[in-house]
Amino acid sequence: MLDKYNLRNPSKGTLYFATTHLIFVDHEMRKETWILLMHISSVERLPITTTGSPLLVRTKTFQSVFFVIPRERDCHEMHQTLLRLSQPVHIDELYCFHYKQTPDDLPKSAGWNFFDIQTEFQRMNVPNDQWVLCTANKDYELCDTYPSEIYVPAKATTAILLGSASFRSRGRLPALAYLHHNKAAIARCSQPLSGFSARCMEDEQMLDLIRRANPNCGYMYVVDTRPRINAMVNRAAGKGYENEAFYENIKFQFSGIGNIHVMRKSLQKLVETCEQNTPSMSSFLSGLESSGWLKHIKSILDTSWWIACAVAGGVSVCVHCSDGWDRTAQVCSLAALCLEPHYRTINGYQALIEKDWLSFGHKFTARCGHIACDGRERSPVFTQLLDCTWQLLRQRPEVSKSLQLSFLVNYS
Hints:
Blueprint: E1 14-17, E2 21-26, E3 31-36, E4 40-45, E5 53-59, E6 64-69, H1 72-86, H2 117-123, E7 131-134, E8 150-153, H3 158-166, E9 175-179, E10 185-188, H4 201-212, E11 220-224, H5 228-236, E12 250-254, H6 260-274, H7 281-291, H8 293-312, E13 317-320, H9 327-339, H10 346-359, H11 364-367, H12 381-395, H13 397-400
Parallel strand pairs: 10-13, 11-12, 11-13
Antiparallel strand pairs: 1-2, 2-3, 4-5, 5-6, 7-8, 9-10
Helix pairs in contact: 3-4, 6-7, 8-9, 8-12, 9-10
Pfam families: Myotub-related (PF06602), PH-GRAM_MTMR6-like (PF21098)
GO cellular component, one term: cytoplasm
Keywords: Hydrolase
């Protein structure tokens, strides 16, 4: 295994393919390197050198490992084996479906009942006089990417829900994501199908009911996490953003977080910076700056902190981007993290991910990892959440004081 900081003294050892891990054992140094197979994002064969056939393994945790295999045939076989193990074609090829438990193991049901969305909202004192459980999506007919149980304003009729869903991209109507103790709420949705002039009375009523569900403030914010120019381009395609002339007592805010394509390019440049052949402090800092990664992290944190401050000040906020499952999930969960001490515990952080990411239909299959099977870079949306959480841990004493997510320190 090559060490780019010490190329003259590479680690020599044996590679083992375990059921769940790739393990490199340096017998001389008595050191083991374990790589979880499901953490591998790409495996690449590099041009043959005089010492052997290089194999580059990149992981979803930003780890890059170089192996030099003496024989080209062995390198080819290892490359194919790693691809098959780390990127199974069918879901039933995953190890969990073949695992044979022993009597001393945990039951197969362990962990599956960890999160219950009703229990999570009951912790926020929901349902109540202002917010109720809606069962209109029990068969996922209202929105196939929302949970079967969503919470909406108590006065929202079926006609309002159906009308609002039909006016929102992919049917992702405004729904409750978090309720603060002062009755200010964070709601989330997708962009409206407004175009340049279309309007929907039911959608306007839906946002007005969200505003009225907070009796302590006469207005609310709608935060569009996209740059304004992006929203205007979508408007030309029949989508876009809310027309201020149609929505009363609502203040609009654009936050300017980059889209998936921007984030992909940023991540690619960041990885290239971390994999420099002859790294130096100046080249690393220059590459980090040109990648724009920290600029994107800052824009996500700025938006999340702004939303948290608005809610803490008693003003409800409705958040969306294009489809409402990338940037929306980021800022809603981070704002809740700032507002709610419970989410700063291990169990609370797990519940936050279950609620704001899994329940509301984040496309983990298409989003997690850096390199997809077809070689295209994926969006590092969830990775950015972890980075933002770590930044909060370090930069905001009022948040990090009770933050018990010590495991995230290792993420740095």
